[in-house]
Design goal:
about 450 residues; Lysozyme; 5 domains; 19 helices; about 10% strand; elongated
Length: about 450
């Protein structure tokens, strides 16, 4: 402000000098000259302010996602409990390789999580919570049956709309579980009006923390996180998050050398319209099965089963185009598995032998434990081999074009005058079956190809 006032006086003096030199005495002319130079001064100051703001923005928004995360940190450990946080920091200092391995594992997910957290206006520390919860392992499972990056219990998951069935567990779904976890944390923060208490409730339970607060207030004690009687695990849960926050803020102080993470999306979504082998998805996308499962850990079976209109999968951004192109050109069946119902005259061992599959593999594919009884009437997943076994058509969909013909599949080309009813009657099928296999609304056009799967 002082510089601005000084510059204003300098302008006035400069104008007086010019007027004397050029014999300008007209007040109007002097005013116009002063106004012109004054507005020039304002513009110059505005430009400098904008340039300074841009420089500050760029300083906090480099191409490294870690810098972006640091810029959003909003929590800090209480000075009265700093020793507890130091103890947790010591663990990371003693295990720098382990710490780095966990952080590297999170590189696939961090950009998406940070984007969601910033959109909601939450502290950036929340993006580090999966380090504490699951060590960024998307298939982590605790002794209490909590699973996924965010460690959802079955009941809590269901209350936040996370579907859990034999084919798919949304608690392990990267996108769905992240949305649910952040919804839950926001709800807890609104309830307790404090992030430490919200994090404690996420670990110990909303009801338990509420009871601890009520008890403290009845005893005339403070009801903040540091004064509540909490389980040691819950306290350490919060201290660990504060500790890893400090490590990320100043990694060199903890003998940790962070790898830069590009500040851009790692994965993108692709909609799947038909049942597909997970192995085929990986092959068409030119990625390993490990990479596919790291991005799509929610799938319990070797099939992406489309239970509704579509099913979303995640692929590395740079592989999406390749997958779509390869899928369009692929002319083979999309699945190599079938749903098989065990008959009264069979048992699980005879079926496994008939299909040339080991008991261990069969149990793993179907999610059966060794002590699970499997008998007549049980529906299991099996390879689509022995030609005398009928494919369960309700669980098989094929692409609507470029499909390989076989003994059971006919590709019919629609001719003038054809109707779905007459085609179905000719091949011993139903109109509904033809519509299902071809994702059709029933309208036909000359030259259209229809997949007719016969048993």
């Amino acid at each position: 402000m002082l510089t601005f006032i000084q510059n204003t006086f300098y302008i006035k003096g400069y104008i007086d000098l010019i007027c004397k030199k050029h014999f300008i005495s007209n007040k109007k002319q002097r005013y116009i000259l002063f106004a012109s130079l004054f507005f020039w001064l304002i513009s110059s100051i505005s430009f400098n302010v904008s340039a300074t703001s841009l420089a500050e923005y760029n300083a906090h928004h480099s191409n490294d996602l870690w810098e972006r995360i640091r810029y959003g940190f909003a929590l800090a450990p209480s000075s009265s409990n700093s020793e507890a946080v130091r103890e947790q920091e010591a663990f990371y200092m003693r295990n720098p390789k382990l710490t780095l391995r966990v952080l590297n594992r999170g590189e696939r997910y961090l950009y998406f999580i940070v984007e969601e957290i910033e959109r909601r206006g939450m502290p950036a520390e929340i993006a580090l919570l999966p380090i504490v919860e699951s060590a960024f392992n998307p298939v982590a499972k605790s002794g209490s049956k909590a699973v996924g990056l965010w460690q959802f219990m079955p009941a809590t998951g269901k209350s936040f709309g996370l579907e859990q069935n034999a084919w798919h567990d949304d608690r392990r779904d990267i996108i769905t579980a992240t949305h649910a976890a952040l919804d839950y944390l926001q709800y807890l923060y609104e309830k307790f009006e404090n992030w430490e208490l919200a994090l404690a409730a996420y670990n110990w339970g909303e009801t338990s923390v509420s009871k601890a607060i009520t008890k403290n207030r009845e005893q005339g004690k403070q009801a903040n996180f540091y004064n509540l009687k909490l389980p040691r695990e819950t306290r350490n849960h919060v201290y660990k998050l504060l500790a890893i926050r400090n490590v990320i803020a100043n990694p060199s102080d903890f003998c940790v050398q962070l790898n830069a993470i590009p500040d851009r999306p790692y994965f993108d979504t692709v909609e799947i319209l038909y049942h597909m082998d997970t192995a085929l998805v990986a092959k068409l996308a030119d990625i390993s099965m490990d990479e596919f499962m790291a991005l799509n850990p929610a799938y319990e079976r070797p099939i992406v089963k489309v239970l509704g209109d579509t099913r979303t999968i995640l692929l590395p951004v740079e592989k999406v185009g390749k997958f779509i192109t390869n899928l369009r050109l692929f002319d083979q069946p999309l699945i190599s598995w079938q749903i098989y119902e065990i008959k009264k005259s069979e048992n699980i061992r005879t079926v496994a032998k008939q299909y040339g599959i080991s008991m261990e593999r069969l149990r793993a594919i179907n999610g059966f434990t060794e002590d699970k009884e499997i008998g007549a009437g049980q529906r299991i997943l099996l390879p689509r081999i022995p030609p005398h076994i009928t494919v369960d058509r309700s669980n098989v969909r094929r692409k609507p074009a470029h499909v390989q013909s076989s003994d059971k599949l006919t590709v019919y080309i629609v001719k003038k005058g054809d109707t779905l009813y007459h085609i179905a009657k000719r091949y011993g099928l139903t109109v509904k079956e033809i519509k299902t296999w071809n994702n059709s609304n029933g309208k036909l056009s000359i030259g259209q190809k229809l997949n007719l799967l016969r048993s």
